[in-house]
Specification:
The complex is a heterodimer of chains A (about 300) and B (about 210).
Chain A lengths: L2 E4 L6 E4 L23 E5 L11 E3 L3 E6 L4 E5 L2 E3 L7 E5 L4 E7 L12 E8 L3 E11 L7 E10 L8 E5 L5 E2 L26 E6 L2 E4 L3 E5 L16 E13 L8 E12 L4 E6 L2 E2 L4 E2 L13
Parallel strand pairs in A: 4-10
Antiparallel strand pairs in A: 1-2, 3-5, 5-8, 6-9, 7-8, 9-10, 11-12, 12-16, 12-17, 13-18, 14-18, 15-16, 18-19, 19-20, 20-21, 20-22
Chain B lengths: L1 H45 L2 H12 L12 H22 L36 H47 L6 H10 L4 H12 L5
Classes of the chains: A mainly beta (about 300), B mainly alpha (about 210).
């Protein structure tokens, strides 16, 4: 039976495998029948979240390990070590979710025998995004245009995704039809320009909302209901919707593969009662406005 | 006499492997330092973050502390800290002093709205008829792309900075945990001579002055 005990109070399960028990020499000085488990210290590099002794870590997270064992090896789904020889080493969690065990090999040194010891990590990928409106609204009085700026965060907030980069994938507008429904002229327009923008970094600090993507997102649907001579026509109720796939890549992943996170709904709506709003990823623009509300702009840059 | 001979022989037998290990460990550590400095030099010329990461992880995994003779702890740690100081100096010099990730002006937009136009986000500039407005919009797109690339660069460098500082801290703990005597003044001097920022010198001093882990 393997020896299993708690490494620290509430901490990880540490295993000492019976296969690696060192034979006794039977000579003086005497050694215990079974050597103690090797020391194994590990620390997540990310200081946010504050707990650096987690066994649940994000894809791409970096863990530093040290101990008195005979070297290191890793088993499980995905991850790599910077060094497998005795001494300190760095574990890089892989790009996909899974279970990974880092094992410190037995040490056969005569003066400091110790038995194999391991720590298991649950690696999790970004599971979703949380949006937070910032910087006011953009609107042109008399037009069916509305823009909302947001910051957004990778979930969950229990791990660090600082070694992850982010991108939105191309999506095409679904609209109400026919004119003069709001945004009807935007049918099938792309969400992103070509070529695809630079991938976005994730800020080092994570807060209660998660790991923040280092960008300001602009969700904007433009008024487009005009007469043939370019004069705006009051639109009727309508919507413009994008279903935007979100992806992440782990910086240290040599394959550079992008993996899906979720699909975010972005939708501008003009109701039959005249209310104009923008929705993205669970956040609806505030304050509520109508087509005839005064022209306004974000505070972040001139419109 | 016989007992003394047996005792001496036993001591030699026990001592020899330790001496051999110590020599190996010393060589191994010197090799790691040299390899790390080669990676660092490649980063200096090629600016590839994989080289900087290689320099850090190679130095961090300096070898087995048990194989270093205790009498060599002080000298080994000084040479290790000297190498860390070089890496950290290069990291500090690699930051763009004008970039602040918390300054809203430095935060890129995911994409832009055409100037003065009621056009969709990420509007294709080729649809802008007015040449000046199109040129302005193209310039704004390029400037925003530069912000995004700066943010990526900062994020990648910051992560490696954290890796280096965390690795230095753990290396120091390994030495002090093994019983290496305090050597704060000399190690502080190495850090100071490297010309690191005051805030970093303070952070490293705190690592040097920390009590040995139990």
């Amino acid at each position: 039976m393997p020896i299993v005990r708690d490494y620290t109070s509430g901490g990880p399960q540490v295993h000492a495998s019976p296969q690696s028990v060192i034979p006794r020499c039977g000579t003086s000085p005497c050694h215990p029948a079974v050597p103690p488990p090797c020391t194994l210290n590990y620390t997540e590099l990310a200081t946010s979240p504050a707990d650096q002794q987690r066994t649940t870590i994000g894809v791409g997270e970096v863990v530093e390990l040290s101990g008195n064992g005979g070297g290191w090896f890793v088993t499980g789904d995905d991850g790599a070590l910077s060094s497998t020889v005795p001494g300190p080493t760095v574990f890089y969690a892989g790009a996909v979710a899974g279970e990974v065990t880092v094992t410190e090999d037995s040490n056969l040194d005569y003066d400091e025998e110790c038995n194999e010891r391991s720590v298991s990590f649950t690696v999790i990928a970004p599971s979703g995004l949380v949006y937070e409106q910032v910087n006011g609204l953009k609107h042109t009085q008399g037009l069916d245009d509305i823009g909302m700026e947001t910051y957004y965060y990778l979930q969950p907030d229990t791990v660090s995704f600082t070694n992850v980069e982010f991108q939105e994938v191309q999506a095409y507008a679904q609209v109400a039809a026919p004119e003069p429904a709001a945004w009807s002229c935007q049918a099938n327009n792309p969400h992103l320009p070509a070529p695809t923008p630079t991938p976005l970094a994730v800020l080092p600090e994570s807060g209660t909302l998660g790991s923040q993507v280092n960008t300001t997102d602009i969700a904007y649907s433009a008024g487009c209901t005009f007469t043939s001579n370019g004069q705006p026509v009051a639109p009727t109720a309508g919507y413009e919707e994008f279903q935007i796939p979100d992806e992440y890549v782990v910086v240290s992943d040599p394959t550079g593969t992008w993996y899906p996170i979720t699909t975010t709904t972005q939708e501008a709506t003009l109701t039959s009662a005249g209310a104009l709003s923008m929705y993205k990823g669970g956040v609806t623009s505030e304050p509520s406005i109508t087509i005839n509300s005064p022209t306004s702009c974000y505070t972040s840059f001139p419109c | 006499m016989m007992q003394r001979t047996i005792g001496l022989t036993l001591c030699l037998i026990l001592a020899l492997p330790v001496t051999a290990n110590a020599a190996t460990a010393g060589d191994q550590m010197q090799q790691r330092v040299a390899a790390s400095m080669q990676d660092l030099q490649r980063f200096r010329t090629g600016h590839s973050f994989s080289d900087l990461q290689g320099a850090i992880t190679t130095l961090f995994s300096f070898g087995d502390i048990k194989s270093i003779a205790p009498a060599d702890y002080v000298a080994r740690r000084r040479s290790l800290v000297q190498a860390w100081a070089q890496i950290l100096k290069v990291i500090e010099e690699s930051y763009d002093p004008t970039y602040d990730p918390h300054d809203p002006n430095d935060v890129p937009f995911d994409c832009l709205i055409a100037p003065g136009a009621t056009s969709p986000t990420c509007f294709d500039y080729q649809n802008i008829k007015d040449p000046k407005a199109r040129a302005d919009f193209i310039a704004a797109i390029k400037a925003n792309g530069a912000k995004a690339r700066k943010a990526l660069y900062y994020s990648r460098l910051w992560n490696l900075d954290e890796l280096a500082m965390g690795s230095l801290k753990m290396d120091l703990q390994i030495f002090s945990g093994a019983g290496a005597p305090p050597d704060v003044a000399a190690l502080d001097a190495i850090i100071q001579q490297a010309g690191l920022s005051e805030s970093r010198q303070t952070a490293i001093h705190a690592m040097l002055a920390a009590p040995a882990p139990r």
